[in-house]
């Protein structure tokens, strides 16, 4: 019996405007003889089908379009062409500290994001679960997030995202931050979530991490998907790029 597609990406193109002429004001724009803006295409005709419960690794060198693809699937970036269909809810971990308000304390960020997720209504123990998983002290969680180290920010952001029970977990590189003990703890948690049937999209520069989490993978280069296959095959192809 075929499982349904939880994510379908069809012929997606993503382009950004670039200003390479040093235009910084309306006066500069009016007095400039030619248009200073050029279109740079980041994703070229991307098509991917992801089944419910799948775990897909996305590998590629810097600038290959990996993070842009995740942000487009998550609805943060609108494609110039193509269509994306998602039949589920997201728990995105797209960057260190993404979604956190730096002026708020750790506890205040928890309350804000849990309310946005709707988790606070469903799980009254969510704050305690986040504090326990993050291993951040009460003193630290009462401090503004702008005073946190990058490792502390990653711990808080990852722990809050994991408290959001959803159909799809999107992880973009954040496991590279933090000490080895916390990385191992996060990996164990991801395996637990995976065993519950959650679909996982995992971007990483570390093939070993992809091998541990994912069954299948894609390799990206210059905004194109160049290879598709098992995690082992794609990780081997990635290593050959260097």
Please describe the topology of this protein:
Elements: E1 5-19, H1 26-31, E2 37-51, E3 55-60, H2 66-73, E4 81-86, E5 90-93, H3 106-117, H4 119-122, H5 126-134, H6 138-141, H7 150-162, E6 168-172, H8 180-195, E7 199-203, H9 207-213, E8 216-221, E9 224-230, H10 231-239
Parallel strand pairs: 3-7, 3-8, 5-6, 6-7
Antiparallel strand pairs: 1-2, 1-4, 8-9
Helix pairs in contact: 5-7, 9-10
What's the mean pLDDT score?
86
Distance between the termini: 40 Å
**Would you identify the regions where 5 or more consecutive residues have pLDDT less than 50?**
none
- Strand portion, in percent? 25-35%
Return Rg in Å: 20 Å
Number of domains: 1
Give the full name of the CATH homologous superfamily.
P-loop containing nucleotide triphosphate hydrolases
Q: Helix and strand string, N-terminal first? A: EHEEHEEHHHHHEHEHEEH
Q: How would a crystallographer describe the biggest sheet?
A: 6 strands, mixed
- Spatial sequence of strands, sheet with the most strands: 5-6-7-3-8-9
What fraction, in percent, of the residue positions are helical? 25-40%
CATH class equals Alpha Beta
């Amino acid at each position: 019996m075929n499982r349904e597609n939880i994510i379908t990406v069809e012929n997606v193109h993503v382009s950004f405007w670039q200003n390479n002429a040093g235009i910084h004001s309306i006066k500069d724009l009016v007095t400039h003889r030619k248009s200073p803006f050029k279109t740079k295409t980041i994703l070229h005709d991307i098509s991917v089908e992801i089944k419910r419960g799948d775990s897909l690794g996305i590998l590629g060198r810097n600038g290959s379009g990996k993070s842009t693809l995740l942000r487009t699937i998550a609805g943060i970036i609108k494609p110039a062409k193509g269509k994306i269909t998602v039949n589920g809810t997201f728990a995105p971990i797209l960057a260190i500290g993404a979604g956190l308000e730096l002026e708020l304390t750790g506890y205040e960020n928890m309350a804000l994001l849990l309310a946005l997720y709707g988790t606070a209504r469903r799980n009254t123990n969510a704050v305690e679960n986040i504090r326990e998983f993050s291993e951040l002290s009460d003193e630290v969680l009462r401090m503004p997030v702008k005073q946190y180290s990058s490792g502390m920010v990653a711990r808080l952001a990852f722990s809050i995202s994991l408290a959001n029970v959803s159909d799809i977990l999107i992880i973009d590189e954040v496991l590279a931050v933090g000490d080895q003990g916390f990385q191992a703890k996060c990996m164990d948690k991801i395996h637990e979530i995976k065993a519950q049937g959650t679909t996982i999209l995992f971007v990483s520069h570390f093939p070993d991490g992809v091998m541990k989490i994912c069954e299948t993978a894609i390799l990206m280069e210059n905004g194109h998907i160049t290879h598709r296959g098992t995690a082992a095959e794609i990780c081997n192809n990635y290593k050959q790029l260097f």
